[in-house]
C-alpha cells in the first residue's frame, strides 16, 4: 500500500542525521562495558550525568565472606524509594551472611535476594544509563562486570479523572492519564482479547519518549500496521512532548487544515476504534491517544452516540452537521446576502436590517471580521483565564461588548446574532481539533463571500470539497464512505442504526475479520 | 520501486460512472435548451426530448461496447494500437492523431462554451455590474485545480456532488405543481411539419452533449464489463430530468412564451415560493446550486482533455497539473470568441452536431478495425491450429 504520504527527507540526509546523533551519543556516553571495579562505574555514570544533584548513589556492604562493597544508583523523583529500601537494600544488607559461601554471590543476589519483578542483567554502561534515566535503579557489586537493572519506577502521577475535552452525559467517566502503562492497562481492562497487540517504540533523540502502538491482530489490516510502523521508525526529532508531534510527523497531509488522525482521551473510544480495525498510538506523557486512520465523519461522532438510543444519536449527528455548516458558513452568508443578494432576504426583514445597519459606517465584511475576531479573542482569553471565572468573563464580555457595540452603532443587531450562533455552533462539535479547523476556515469563506458573493462561496466550497476528497489518511480516502460511496458503511455516519443491525465492521478500514455479530 | 499513484487502488466504481455521466450531461444545456425546442416543435418538445435522448443513448451504448473490448485503455491508447500496421507503432500514433484532435477540439470547445454561457447567465441574472472576465477566469481557474487530478479522483468528486444536482429538480417539480397549467401541454401530437420535427429532435439531442467523456473515463473503470447497465441507467436519469424540465416549462409558460425566454429554467424556478418565506427570491440561490452542475461538467471535460493529452504523449503523472494550467489560456481565448449570445447559441448547436458526428465517426472507424483485426487473428488461430 503506497499512500500520499511522502518521505520528507531523503535517505542520505536521514543517514547523516543518524550518524550525527550516534556520534553525539558516543561523545556523551560512549560504548563502555561495565567494569569490575565499581568505583569506576560510579565515576563514569557521574561524569555522564554531570554530577546532577538528583542522582542518588548509595554505597553499602554485602556481608559475605569476604565482605563485598556494592552500590545502588537511582534518580531521585523517578523511583519508589520505599520499595527500594524494603526489597532491595534491606535484604542485601541483612541477609548476606546467610549465604553459603560456595554459591556464586552474583547469582544469589540476582535470584534470591533482590525482590523485584522486573530485573535485567546488563553489561553495557550505556544501557544502564538509559534505564537509570527512565526510572530504574542499578545495582553494581564489586568484582562482577555486570550491573543489575531493577525496575522500581514510581513517580508522582495524576490520578484517573474525567476526560475534560470529551465530556459525555452517559458513558464512562474515566479519562486516560499521562502515564503510558496506566493507559494501556485501562484499555486492556476493557478489551480482554488475547489478540490485542502492543508494540513499543522509542522516539525523540533526547526525550526518548515511549510510544506504544495498539491494534487487534486479526481485525486490523496488516499493511496498515506495517505502514504506520514504517512511518514511526522514520521519525527523526529530538523531542516528543505530546502526541501532536507524532500526528504531524506521520500524518498524510501536514499542510491541510483538516486533522487526518483523531485524538481522544477516552479509553472506551480507543477500544471502539481498535474494534473497527484502526490502530491506536499511545505516547507517554500525554492522555491524548492518536487513532489512525481517521475519516471526516468520525470527527462528528461522539462516543455517547453509541450509548444513547439510536434515534437520539441520529438526531444529534444531523444536528452536528447543521452546526458544522452554520459554524463554517453563516457569517459568510450574511456578508453575501447583505452586499450582493439583498433581494433574497424577505422584504420585511430587509427593511429591519437596513434600519439596523443604517448607523453602521463599515461594509459588512469589516463589520463581520471585527465581531468574529473579538469573539475569537474572547474565546482564547476565557481558556487562559484562571479557573471558575473564565467562562463567566467570557459570557459577560460577549454580552456587554455585543450590546455596547450595537448601541454605539458599530455593528448591526443581526451581526451579533450571527456571531453568537456561529460561536455556539462551533462548540457543538465533539472533537476539539476538528472544531478549530472549521473556526479557521470561516475567515477565508467570509473574504471570498465579500468579493464574489454566493457564487464565490460555492466555488470556494467546491475547492474545499476537492481538497477533502483528495485527502487520505493512511490510504483511506478522507470522505469515505461517501466518496467513494460504500453504502453499507453509511449505517454509522450521519445516522446510527441500532446495535442489533450493526453486524459488520466498516469496510473502508479493510478489516480482516469484518463480522461484528452474528446475523 | 516504481512510484505508484495511490489513486490507482480506487478505480471508478459503477455508481461513480453513473455520477460521471449524469453530471457531465447536466450542465449549461439544462438552463436554455427549452427555448430552441419550443421554437421548433412547440408542445411536441415533450416527445422530441425523449427521442433525442434515445439517439444519445444509442451512441452511449456504442461507445460502451467499443470501450469494453479494450479495458483499461483510453481512446488515445487503443486507437493508436488499432491503427498501427505491423510493427510500425509510430504509424498508429500518427494516424490516430486526427481522431484525437477531432474529439479534443470538441472538448476544448465545450469547455469554452460552458464557461461563457455560465458567465453570461451569472451577469444577466445576479451580478450585473461584475465584468464577465471575472467569472470566466475564476470558473476556469478553479476547474483547473480539479482537472489536474487523476480521473479516479474526479469521478469521486462527481460522486459526492451528484445528489446536489437533484435540488433544482425538486424546485422545478415544485414550480410545476404550483404554477403549471396542463392545458398548455395540449394538443399532444400536432406534427404539422415533419422537417421541423426532425430538427427539433436533433436540437433535443444536442442538449445531451458531453457523453463523449466516456472515451477516457471508461479506461479507469473497475468493472468495465458491467458498465452497460450503469450507463443506460444514468442516461435514463438524465432523460427523465430533462423531460420534467421541458414539460414543466411548457406547462407553465406555454410554447409561445417559452420560445422568447432567454433562460427558461431560471424563470421557471423564480416561480417557486419557498415555504415559510425564509428566502424571497431564488435567482442567486439557483445560480449558487447551478454552479455545481456547471462546475462538474467543466471539470469532467477538462479532466478528459488533460488525460488524453497525457496518454497521447505518454507523459509522466506530474505533468498532469501543468497540462491543465497550460490549456487554461486556450479555453479562455476560445470562450472569448463568440461576439454575442446569438453566436454563442449557434456555437452550442454546432458543437452538439459535431459531437454526435465525431463520436459516430470514431466508433465506426475503430469498430471496423477491431472487427478486421479480430478476423485476422481468428484466421491465424485457425490456420495455426489446422
Strands side by side in the biggest sheet of chain A:
1-2-4-5-3
Structural class of chain A: alpha+beta
Overall radius of gyration of chain B: 22 Å
CATH topology of chain B: Amino acid/polyamine transporter I
**Got a strand count of chain A?**
12
Sketch the topology of chain A as an H/E string, one letter per element. HHEEHHEHEEHEEHHEHEEHHHHHHHEE
What is the helical fraction of chain A, as a range of percent? 40-55%
Please, could you describe this protein's structure?
The complex is a heterodimer of chains A (519) and B (386). With 519 residues, chain A is α+β, with helices and mostly antiparallel strands. Chain A folds into three domains: 31-151, no CATH class; 180-294, no CATH class; 306-477, no CATH class. Chain A is built from 16 helices and twelve strands. In chain A, the strands form three sheets. Chain A has a five-stranded antiparallel sheet with strand order 1-2-4-5-3, sandwiched between helices. A five-stranded antiparallel sheet of chain A has the order 6-7-9-10-8, sandwiched between helices. In chain A, strands 11-12 form a two-stranded antiparallel ribbon. In chain A, a hairpin with a 5-residue loop joins strand 9 and strand 10. In chain A, helix 11 packs across helix 16, helix 13 packs across helix 15 (413-427) and helix 13 packs across helix 16. The relative contact order of chain A is 0.09. The model of chain A is unreliable at 1-6 (pLDDT under 50). Chain B is mainly alpha-helical and 386 residues long. Chain B has one domain: Up-down Bundle (Amino acid/polyamine transporter I). Chain B is 75% helix and 0% strand. Chain B is built from 14 helices and no strands. Chain B has helices at 14-25, 29-41, 45-68, 75-83, 89-125, 132-147, 151-179, 194-206, 214-217, 227-258, 264-270, 283-312, 319-336, 341-385. The mean pLDDT of chain B is 88. Chains A and B meet through helix 16 of A and helix 6, helix 7 and helix 12 of B.
Amino acid at each position: 500500500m503506497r499512500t500520499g504520504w511522502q518521505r520528507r527527507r531523503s535517505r542520505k540526509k536521514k543517514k547523516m542525521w543518524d550518524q550525527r546523533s550516534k556520534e553525539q551519543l558516543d561523545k556523551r556516553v560512549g560504548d563502555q562495558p561495565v567494569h569490575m571495579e565499581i568505583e569506576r562505574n560510579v565515576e563514569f555514570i557521574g561524569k555522564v550525568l554531570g554530577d546532577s544533584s538528583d542522582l542518588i548513589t548509595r554505597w553499602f556492604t554485602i556481608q559475605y565472606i569476604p565482605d563485598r562493597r556494592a552500590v545502588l544508583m537511582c534518580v531521585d523523583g523517578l523511583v519508589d524509594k520505599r520499595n527500594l529500601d524494603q526489597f532491595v537494600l534491606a535484604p542485601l544488607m541483612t541477609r548476606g551472611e546467610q549465604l553459603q559461601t560456595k554459591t556464586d554471590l552474583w547469582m544469589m543476589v540476582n535470584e534470591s535476594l533482590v525482590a523485584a519483578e522486573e530485573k535485567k542483567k546488563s553489561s553495557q554502561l550505556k544501557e544502564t544509563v538509559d534505564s537509570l534515566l527512565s526510572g530504574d535503579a542499578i545495582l553494581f557489586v564489586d568484582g562482577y562486570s555486570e550491573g543489575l537493572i531493577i525496575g522500581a519506577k514510581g513517580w508522582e502521577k495524576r490520578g484517573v479523572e474525567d476526560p475534560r475535552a470529551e465530556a459525555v452525559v452517559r458513558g464512562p467517566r474515566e479519562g486516560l492519564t499521562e502515564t503510558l502503562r496506566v493507559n494501556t492497562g485501562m484499555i486492556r481492562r476493557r478489551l480482554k482479547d488475547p489478540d490485542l497487540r502492543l508494540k513499543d517504540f522509542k522516539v525523540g533523540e533526547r526525550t526518548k519518549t515511549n510510544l506504544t502502538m495498539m491494534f487487534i491482530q486479526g481485525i486490523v489490516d496488516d499493511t496498515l500496521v506495517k505502514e504506520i510502523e514504517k512511518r514511526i521508525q522514520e521519525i527523526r526529532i529530538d523531542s516528543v512532548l505530546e502526541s501532536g508531534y507524532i500526528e504531524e510527523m506521520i500524518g498524510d497531509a501536514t499542510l491541510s487544515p483538516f486533522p487526518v488522525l483523531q485524538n481522544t482521551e477516552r479509553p472506551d473510544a480507543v477500544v471502539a476504534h481498535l474494534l473497527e480495525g484502526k490502530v491506536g498510538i499511545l505516547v507517554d506523557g500525554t492522555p491524548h491517544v492518536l487513532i489512525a486512520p481517521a475519516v471526516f465523519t468520525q470527527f462528528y461522532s461522539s462516543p455517547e452516540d453509541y450509548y444513547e438510543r439510536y434515534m437520539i444519536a441520529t438526531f444529534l449527528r444531523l444536528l452536528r452537521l447543521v452546526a458544522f455548516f452554520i459554524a463554517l458558513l453563516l457569517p459568510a452568508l450574511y456578508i453575501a446576502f447583505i452586499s450582493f443578494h439583498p433581494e433574497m432576504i424577505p422584504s420585511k426583514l430587509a427593511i429591519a436590517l437596513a434600519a439596523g445597519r443604517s448607523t453602521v459606517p463599515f461594509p459588512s465584511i469589516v463589520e463581520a471580521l471585527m465581531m468574529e475576531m473579538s469573539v475569537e479573542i474572547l474565546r482564547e482569553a476565557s481558556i487562559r483565564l484562571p479557573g471558575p471565572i473564565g467562562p463567566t468573563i467570557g459570557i459577560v464580555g460577549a454580552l456587554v461588548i455585543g450590546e455596547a457595540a450595537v448601541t454605539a452603532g458599530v455593528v448591526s443587531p443581526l451581526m451579533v446574532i450571527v456571531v453568537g450562533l456561529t460561536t455556539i455552533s462551533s462548540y457543538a462539535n465533539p472533537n476539539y481539533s476538528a472544531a478549530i479547523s472549521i473556526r479557521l476556515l470561516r475567515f477565508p469563506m467570509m473574504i471570498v463571500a465579500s468579493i464574489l458573493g454566493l457564487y464565490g462561496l460555492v466555488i470556494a466550497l467546491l475547492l474545499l470539497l476537492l481538497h477533502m476528497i483528495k485527502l487520505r489518511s493512511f490510504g483511506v480516502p478522507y470522505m469515505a464512505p461517501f466518496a467513494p460511496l460504500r453504502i453499507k458503511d453509511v449505517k454509522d455516519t450521519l445516522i446510527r442504526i441500532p446495535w442489533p443491525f450493526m453486524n459488520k465492521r466498516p469496510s473502508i478500514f479493510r478489516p480482516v475479520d469484518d463480522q461484528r455479530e452474528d446475523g | 520501486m516504481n512510484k505508484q499513484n495511490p489513486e490507482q487502488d480506487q478505480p471508478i466504481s459503477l455508481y461513480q460512472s453513473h455520477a460521471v455521466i449524469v453530471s457531465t450531461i447536466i450542465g449549461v444545456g439544462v438552463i436554455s435548451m427549452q427555448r430552441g425546442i419550443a421554437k421548433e416543435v412547440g408542445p411536441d418538445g415533450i416527445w422530441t426530448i425523449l427521442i433525442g435522448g434515445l439517439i444519445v443513448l444509442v451512441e452511449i451504448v456504442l461507445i460502451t461496447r467499443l470501450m469494453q473490448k479494450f479495458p483499461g485503455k483510453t481512446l488515445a491508447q487503443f486507437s493508436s494500437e488499432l491503427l498501427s500496421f505491423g510493427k510500425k507503432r509510430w504509424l498508429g500514433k500518427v494516424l490516430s492523431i486526427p481522431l484525437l484532435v477531432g474529439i479534443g477540439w470538441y472538448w476544448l470547445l465545450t469547455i469554452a462554451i460552458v464557461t461563457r454561457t455560465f458567465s453570461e447567465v451569472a451577469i444577466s441574472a445576479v451580478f450585473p455590474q461584475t465584468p464577465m472576465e471575472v467569472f470566466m477566469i475564476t470558473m476556469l481557474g478553479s476547474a483547473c485545480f480539479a482537472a489536474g487530478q487523476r480521473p479516479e479522483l474526479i469521478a469521486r468528486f462527481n460522486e459526492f456532488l451528484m445528489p446536489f444536482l437533484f435540488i433544482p429538480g425538486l424546485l422545478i417539480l415544485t414550480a410545476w405543481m404550483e404554477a403549471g397549467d396542463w392545458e398548455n401541454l395540449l394538443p399532444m401530437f400536432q406534427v404539422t411539419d415533419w422537417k421541423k420535427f426532425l430538427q427539433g429532435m436533433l436540437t433535443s439531442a444536442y442538449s445531451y452533449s458531453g457523453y463523449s467523456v466516456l472515451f477516457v473515463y471508461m479506461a479507469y473503470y473497475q468493472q468495465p464489463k458491467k458498465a452497460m447497465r450503469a450507463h443506460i441507467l444514468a442516461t435514463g436519469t438524465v432523460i427523465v430530468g430533462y423531460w420534467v424540465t421541458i414539460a414543466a416549462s411548457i406547462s407553465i409558460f406555454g410554447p409561445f412564451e417559452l420560445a422568447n425566454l432567454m433562460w427558461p429554467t431560471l424563470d421557471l424556478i423564480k416561480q417557486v415560493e419557498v415555504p415559510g418565506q425564509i428566502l424571497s427570491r431564488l435567482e442567486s440561490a439557483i445560480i449558487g446550486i447551478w454552479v455545481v452542475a456547471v462546475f462538474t461538467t467543466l471539470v469532467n471535460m477538462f479532466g478528459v482533455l488533460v488525460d488524453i493529452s497525457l496518454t497521447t504523449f505518454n507523459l509522466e503523472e506530474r505533468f498532469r497539473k501543468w497540462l491543465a494550467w497550460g490549456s487554461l489560456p486556450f479555453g479562455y481565448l476560445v470562450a472569448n470568441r463568440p461576439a454575442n449570445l446569438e453566436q454563442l447559441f449557434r456555437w452550442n448547436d454546432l458543437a452538439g452536431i459535431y459531437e454526435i458526428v465525431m463520436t459516430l465517426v470514431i466508433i465506426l472507424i475503430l469498430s471496423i478495425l477491431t472487427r478486421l483485426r479480430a478476423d485476422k487473428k481468428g484466421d491465424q488461430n485457425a490456420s495455426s491450429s489446422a
